[in-house]
Amino acid sequence: MNRDRIAALIGKELREFRANPSAIAPVVLVILVCLALPFVVLVLIPHLTGESLAADPVLRKAVSFAALYVPSLAGLPPAAAAEAFLFQQFLLLFLVAPIVGAVSLAAYSVVGEKQGRTLEPLLTTPLTTVEMLLSKVLAAFLPSLVIEAVGLVIYLSLVGVFAAPGVLQAIFNMRTVLLVGGIGPFASLAALQATIAVSSRVSDPRSAQQIAVLLVLPLVLMLVGQVAGAFVITTTALALLMVAFAVTWIILLYLSVALFQRETILTSWK
Amino acid sequence: MLSALQLTRQFGSRTAVQNLSFEVRRGEVFGLLGPNGAGKTTTLRMLGGLIFPTSGTVSIDGTAVSPRNADALRARIGFLTETPGLWEQLSVADNVLTYARLFGVSRPHEAVEGMLRRFDLWDRRADRVVLLSKGMKQKLALARALVHDPRVILLDEPTANLDPQTSRAVRDLIIELRDRGRTILVSTHNLDEVERLASRVALISTRLIAIGEPRELRRELFGRRLRITVVSLDALVHAAAVATRCGATEVIAEDNSISMSLTDPDRDAPAIVAALVSAGIGVREAKDEDPPLEDVYLKLLDAGQQSNSRTVESMK
User: Fold this and answer.
1) A7, A116, A126: residue with CB nearest B72
2) CA B228, CA A90: separation in Å to the nearest integer?
3) What's the pLDDT at B315?
4) pLDDT higher than threshold 80 for residue A25
5) Is the pLDDT of residue A150 over 80?
């Protein structure tokens, strides 16, 4: 693989996003929702209703169950532990957000080249298929990652300001690092790669977008299952999950290369 | 050098190109002619390593193109595709710069500036492509195809959408590239352009119908003809009779000249002119008559298609 060619194509994709800022709008919008939602649920509503989160028996049970696997929760008062537990669960939204947002960029990337008749000239260059598809994925991934990182810093800052004392410190643990630094990026890459693979086989970007739902679904189930107290995913399980997403991404990268039929695209697509 | 040997390309049961062989030499402009659907674009794509022949071989500088080495060999080729295919939301400079980097040009910014200046687009370098006229887009596509100074150049309708002045500039550039030893293949419908640029042409209609220098093809089809312009219109009939007596055949009188076919013009032409002058007919001009390349094209194509039909009939 030639890094200069990959950098050249990523640079072109990013300049196109810059020329068309509305393409990034879905990512920004989803991150804003992810930022607002936890504070509405965990800070605003309890404040307006006067009901403590710790008063909910289902939540209390889920928190005490989680405290068995997350020691930092055990040292907190019940209300703060409930807040810390939920703020950590809401971090999962930051995994889903870049996928949902960036998928529209990825879905359009190959179909868009076909529709704009720009694919054939691109295929006249020495760019290999794997370089092209990797560049497309990274170009959709990088802006969403930056936006996600900015959103995360704001999120944690707001937790520090609005949450009970000790909650922010309780959130900073290996689980958070694995979720945000490992599972999130690799799940995004896998989802985007799957989207790109489909994008190179269809003529409508909407068809490509639907595939990402398949990868978002397990993450959403993780959030719902843990909040409901059905299960707690341990740090080891999270590490394994991260590896699984990384392997899935690599497999999907090679699968998308195998699915990308230059000749069919050039000769059959009108 | 670029060579095609026995190229055949099928798409399912349809044969787009059949047993096509030719070579384009270093420092040569080669014209590829053919009607719509003749397989020109398929041929160009095979030559450019974008698609591969069902059978046969494409070679660039002696190296056979295969799926294994096509990515690397494409670095030697500059390919102007049928549609400009520019990134409309990017600037003029960014379009060319991205390609310069994809082709690994060592000083990409300098190469981009050189190309944009060459095509009078330097002043528009910051403009988005969507704002350019069709002609400017075509010029930009050419700049993009040539930014890496390729050794082999494939041009699909290079002067489409260009005004006469820019067309001439493009033709001058092609001639300059030829003189610098580049191997150039031009696919076009513009016969006048082929006439001006190409030292040899190939006419294809799925298979090769004819190949050679335009002048050679003319002579093969129409023989060598002479046109003599006389001073007085009244002498035209008399002049035709004198020419016929001197061995000219297919003598046609029109306007104030007679056109005739000669077996050996180098021997017969001076004799006919002398006979006309002796007969008291004023001769203003005598010159070789070249039928338009369009006539050659249509005649060859007609013959080729009849031959195709015969082949299909015999296959039935």
Assistant:
1) A126
2) 94
3) 40
4) no
5) yes
Query: What whole-number distance in Å separates Cα of residue B249 and Cα of residue B262?
Result: 7
> Min CA distance, B169 vs chain A (Å)?
23
Closest partner CB to B87 (pick from A7, A118, A127): A118
Minimum Cα–Cα distance from A115: chain B residue: B85
Bigger pLDDT: A270 or B224? B224
A17-22 contacts at long range (C-beta below 8 A, 24 or more positions apart): A17/A105, A17/A139, A17/A143, A19/B89, A19/B90, A19/B128, A20/B89
Interface test with A, best of B9, B17, B83, B87 (most A CBs within 10 A): B87
Q: Which residues of A touch B10 (CB under 8 A)?
A: none
Identify the three-state secondary structure at position B209. strand
Whether ipTM tops 0.90, in short, is: no
All structural domains of chain B: 2-212 (3.40.50.300), 222-316 (3.30.70.980)
pLDDT above 80: residue A40: yes
- Per-residue pLDDT tens for A203-215? 666 666 666 666 6
Q: How many helices (H) and strands (E) does chain A have?
A: 14, 0
Length of chain B: 316
CA distance A132 to chain B (A): 11
- Apex CA B287: angle with CA B283 and CA B288, to 5°? 150
Residues with Cβ within 8 Å of residue A57, at least 6 apart in sequence? none
Q: How far does A246 lie from chain B, in Å, by closest CA?
A: 28
Determine contact: A21 vs chain B, CB below 8 A: no
Give the residue carrying structure tokens 């640079």.
A11
Instruction: Please tell me the predicted confidence (pLDDT) of residue A226.
Output: 64
Nearest by Cα to A137 from A25, A6, A261, A242: A6
Per run of 10 residues, the mean pLDDT along chain B (length 316 residues) is 92 89 93 86 92 92 89 92 90 96 94 93 94 89 94 90 83 91 89 84 86 78 81 89 90 88 85 92 87 73 64 42
Residue B299's DSSP bridge partners are none
Flag if A9 and B72 touch (Cβ within 8 Å). no
Burial class of B15 by CB neighbour count within 10 A (0 to 12, 13 to 18, 19+): middle
**DSSP of A3-49, one letter per residue?**
HHHHHHHHHHHHHHHHH-GGGTHHHHHHHHHHHHHHHIIIIIHHHHH
Determine the pLDDT at residue B123. Answer: 94
| Any B CB within 8 A of A112 CB | no
Residues 6+ apart with CB under 8 A from A228: A58, A62
* B85–A266 CB contact, under 8 Å: no
Q: Helix or strand or coil: residue B74?
A: helix
| Residue A105 confidence class, pLDDT cut points 50, 70, 90 | confident
Sign of CA dihedral A86, A88, A94, A99: negative
Tell me how close the Cα of B229 comes to any Cα of chain A, in angstroms.
51
Give the tens place of pLDDT for each residue, A63-76: 777 777 777 777 77
